[in-house]
User: What shape does this take?
Amino acid sequence: MTLYAHRGASAHAPENTIPSFKKALEMGARGIELDVQLSADGIPVVIHDFFLNKTTEASGMVRSLEWKEISKLDAGSWFGNDFRGTGIPALEDVLALIPRDVCLNIEVKSISLFQEPTTRIVLDMLEQEGGRDILISSFNHNCLKEVRERDPEMKIGILTGSDMIDFTSYVKSTGLNPYSLHPEASYLTKEYVDKAHAEGWKVMCYTVNSPDAAELVGRCGVDGFFSDYPELIQ
Ligand code: G3P
Ligand code: MG
Assistant: This one.
């Protein structure tokens, strides 16, 4: 079973920052998840929320500030004084940090309304990354369609946040040929995992933050899970 450090070791350091990813690596994580969005000038930046106010001193949307402004923000103080001055990283900075054999799960955050070229720009960047273990996921399945149309080999993870009446038919109808399905953990059952495995899809669920929850999803037969606590792999 693979543990994906969710936004890095985000229970121990501010989510989606270099200290959080470094901590996850120190703790032995073999998979790392991050969220990516575009700045106003099209730079892929690593941040979860569409709005800046949860983790920085700024307000407004990530997409309305240019990278030169985003890069000056403090995304660490909200978590604790020890992290004061920690910045929001660009995707490029994180790619430079993560060893090539650690699976990097890039979750594309994209609102359809804005028609942003996030997926295309991320894929352009990944073209220089041949041989790296990468899995691209998104709740926006149109982004995943873009990935598949451009790259028949890229590992795709289909994220879902609710129970689905007939997920196997849905997934087949998308033509995405995913590597994995990423359901929210509370919608997981052993039947779900068995059905997915019968189709050749792995199952990784989110977000599993206690030993009890890890045991439950383990009993369902998942291939991996996302956690803010990399130590849970024990
Ligand atoms: O990719 C798993 C998980 O990160 C999905 O939810 O909201 O934490 O990005 P969220
Ligand atoms: Mg995420």
